[in-house]
Design goal:
The complex is a heterodimer of chains A (526) and B (250). By secondary structure, chain A is of the alpha/beta class. Chain A contains 23 helices and eleven strands. In chain A, the strands form two sheets. A six-stranded parallel beta sheet of chain A has the order 2-1-3-4-5-6, sandwiched between helices. A five-stranded parallel beta sheet of chain A has the order 8-7-9-10-11, sandwiched between helices. Classes of the chains: A alpha/beta (526), B alpha/beta (250).
Chain lengths: 526, 250
């Protein structure tokens, strides 16, 4: 990620003002985001009013969970003892005070309070059935694990944002946290929410981008280079679809419709930082982030502000947005000829790959069974992936593999030989029978850029842990689904039995056919 | 290269294969048979084997001798030598290098295991990577904490923060002789020191992106008993940093 210069981050790290160990322990969400803590502080932590080290200011009394439960913040300065009992009393009084029509309307807009969810989960424990929101707010002192709906996690919010004190976490989130981009959805809740989606009718790209509007595609020049690629891809796609588009990195003042790629960059840090509420509402956003991340949290208020809607790079994420009341369409990244995601031309691998790794001769054979690699696995190593790969080692050891799973414990520098470019990754995928996907954590996204754009579109048979369902690619049709526990046996079957080879041939044929349809003009748009 | 005087306990064969597996042995009677069995099960047909016992206090050398008597025909050459005194891992490995006359030496500790394609793939990798002095693969950790290791490539930018590459590697013997083999570093990290010396002369190992060996994690390994013990660890960091001042150890 190139949000900040390495020099800037290094200078801060060496300044003596930053205590990395303390910061990571104090703010557990930093580990979840998985970026360099110093960078996290400069990028997000400072914005949230966090401290760079224990001694950067005097530490006030650190309340326990029970001591932080006064909904209206009336308890500031009170003694910690007896917090639970008193807070319940204060809680009821406070709930009445803060449940103003304005607050209720903000909750309504957020889509985060779900009466049905609340009733079915806390039946028998509800004191004010005619006002469930008031019940939730005032119950906090008695019932610490009560949540307002399928996404917001009360306990996660308290645990993650330890600076939130003397205020009900949900009230804090609605009033301040959402604006500040604080993570509020625990990975477990996101996972449950996105997993339980039945069929969800997504909007179409054409519903969200009126055909008669000229469009500015906006991205932040100093941001992540991937979003620059997404912006260029959109320029290519929308031009083909007949839109009048202009690719820009400034803040336009014309009458065209603004389509913002990655609002957590462009609007939170880039030229869109000083837009008016009307400008935010009039824009359409391209959402790029997974829901459990701080980046998504930072985007959410912009996505919710849009009157026209959101395009999402992930089908499950788009479904989720529709389910919380937004208009959202899936924007599939496809290998469009001539676009930055077209990896169809065989190209030599980068010299650093062939110097540092022993690479098979890439032969780009026609037939799947002639591909030189049996298994390709690419992703940043963490404990989960490490254990998963170890469980498969006896199977993998007897096959030709390209396992590219480096650990990164510090910021990635340009030219790091452990970084495999998308282009190199795609060339290897083109020469692999199977591409293995082990989810990074407990969330089960189909990682479109990796699994679809590189795996399936290069004709590899993707073998993945179960993914959230979507309408575009399906298990047993476009990829093979297997739990981590069953993966060694599934790999063994695919690679060594006749039935397995037939299954691979069938799935390979399906993805090749899909690639052909895309080459012929199919865009997977509704 | 510092080596130790040995007595030969077993010797079979007179010429050397392209690859010789060198096994330093100390008090691993419990594991050594399984380790040697994994060498015998290699798909690569032509293999030599040298086991150097560093004066084990258990019956390790007797176990190896019996095993070699039964399995010697699997190997072009099979040697069991015993140091005349206990000298530690570095010099024991060097002694193995001096005995083995193969063009390539594969270092296998007496408690670790190879998957059957291991030696063949390493030889292929080295033969096709003219610029590299050797090759290593990813390893599966067994017995203790499960996981994989060796997942990053050999480069100075990463090694300066700490070692991520185990000694289980195939290395050109003429290179090892040229650089004096392993240096005797008090309390361990002799393999790390070799990688760092390689960085200093712009040499490197090529990574085979496959899992080809099994690294046993248990309380008896040298890493657990010597290297990571309190004060030793601090001394070791100081020693290695004094030898390679460009390090910025984590």
């Amino acid at each position: 990620m190139d949000y900040l210069s390495e020099d800037e981050v290094a200078a801060f790290r060496d300044s003596g003002q930053f205590d990395e160990q303390w910061y990571v322990e104090e703010y557990p969400d930093v580990k979840l985001v998985g970026i360099d803590p110093a960078k996290h502080y400069l990028w997000l932590g400072a914005r949230l009013g966090r401290k760079p080290s224990r001694d950067s200011a005097a530490i006030p009394f650190r309340p326990t969970l029970e001591d932080r439960i006064d909904p209206a913040g009336e308890a500031a300065g009170r003694e910690p003892e007896g917090g639970n009992k008193r807070a319940t009393r204060n809680g009821s009084r406070g709930a009445a005070k803060i449940l103003t029509p304005e607050f209720r309307s903000k909750v309504e807009e957020s889509g985060l309070f779900d009466s049905e969810y609340y009733l079915s989960n806390y039946r028998g424990r509800i004191s004010t059935p005619d006002d469930l929101l008031a019940d939730y707010i005032s119950a906090f002192g008695r019932d610490l694990d009560r949540d307002p709906g399928r996404l917001f996690s009360t306990r996660y919010y308290v645990d993650t944002h330890r600076d939130v004190k003397n205020m009900h976490p949900f009230v804090h989130y609605i009033e301040y946290g959402m604006n500040e981009g604080r993570a509020a959805f625990s990975p477990e809740k996101v996972n449950a929410f996105l997993s339980e989606a039945g069929h969800v009718d997504l909007d179409s790209l054409f519903d969200i981008l009126p055909r008669d509007r000229a469009i500015n595609i906006l991205y932040w020049e100093e941001g992540n280079f991937f979003f620059t690629d997404v912006a260029r891809y959109l320029e290519r796609l929308l031009t083909e679809l007949g839109y009048d588009v202009s690719l820009r990195t400034d803040s336009p003042t014309d009458e065209r419709l603004n389509l913002v790629v990655a609002p957590h960059e462009y609007c939170a840090c880039g030229p869109g930082k000083h837009w008016t509420a009307e400008q935010y509402a009039a824009a359409v956003y391209v959402s790029t982030e997974q829901w459990q991340t701080s980046w998504f949290a930072l985007s959410l208020k912009y996505l919710q502000a849009s009157e026209l809607g959101v395009l999402d790079l992930n089908p499950s994420s788009a479904q989720g947005l529709v389910r919380i009341g937004l208009r959202a369409a899936f924007l599939p990244l496809l290998p469009l000829p001539g676009s930055c995601f077209d990896f169809s031309e065989p190209r030599p691998l980068s010299p650093h790959v062939t110097r540092f790794k022993f690479v098979e001769k890439l032969s780009y054979p026609e037939r799947l069974e002639d591909r030189p690699y049996d298994v390709l696995c690419c992703g940043v190593l963490n404990e989960r992936r490490s254990k998963g790969l170890a469980s498969m080692a006896p199977v993998l050891a007897s096959h030709r593999c390209f396992i590219h799973t480096p650990r990164f414990n510090r910021p990635i520098k340009p030219g790091d030989p452990d970084v495999l470019s998308a282009e190199d990754f795609a060339q290897i995928a083109r020469n692999s029978k199977i591409m293995l996907n082990i989810h990074q954590g407990d969330s089960h996204y189909i990682e479109w850029q990796r699994m679809f754009l590189i795996g399936m579109m290069q004709g590899a048979v993707v073998v993945s842990e179960p993914c959230y369902p979507n309408d575009f690619v399906m298990p047993d049709v476009h990829y093979v689904e297997a739990s981590l526990e069953s993966m060694p046996a599934v790999l063994m079957e695919l690679l060594t039995t006749e039935a397995g080879r037939e299954k691979m041939a069938r799935i390979h044929a399906n993805v090749v056919e899909m690639r052909q349809r895309i080459a012929d003009g199919e865009r997977l748009l509704k | 290269m510092i080596v130790q005087e040995t007595e030969t306990l077993f010797h079979h064969g007179s010429s050397w294969a392209d690859v010789c597996v060198v096994v330093p042995l100390y008090n691993y009677e419990k594991y050594i048979t399984q380790t040697l069995q994994s060498v015998a099960s290699q798909e690569l047909a032509d293999v030599s084997l040298v086991v150097v016992d560093d004066c084990s206090k258990d019956s390790s050398p007797q176990v190896v001798r019996s095993w070699l008597e039964a399995n010697k025909d699997r190997f072009r050459t099979a040697v069991l030598a015993r140091n005349v005194k206990n000298v530690g891992l570095s010099i024991t490995r060097n002694t193995g290098i001096s005995i083995a006359e193969s063009a390539h030496v594969f270092f296998l500790d007496a408690d670790n295991l190879l998957y059957p394609r291991c030696l063949g793939r390493h030889l292929e990798a080295v033969e096709q990577s003219a610029g590299a002095q050797g090759a290593y693969s990813l390893l599966e950790m067994i017995d203790g904490d499960r996981g994989i290791m060796g997942t990053e490539v050999f480069h100075r930018g990463r090694l300066k923060y700490g070692n991520h590459i185990d000694a289980m590697a195939l290395i050109r013997r003429d290179f090892l002789l040229k650089v004096g083999g392993y240096h005797d570093i008090k309390f361990g990290w002799e393999d790390f020191d070799l990688w760092l010396r390689m960085c200093e002369t712009n040499e490197y190992l090529v990574q085979i992106p496959e899992i080809l060996g099994r690294y046993r994690v248990h309380h008896q390994s040298m890493l657990r008993t010597t290297t990571n013990v309190g004060k030793n660890h601090v001394t070791l960091r100081e020693n290695i940093t004094a030898l390679h001042p460009w390090l910025q150890l984590d």
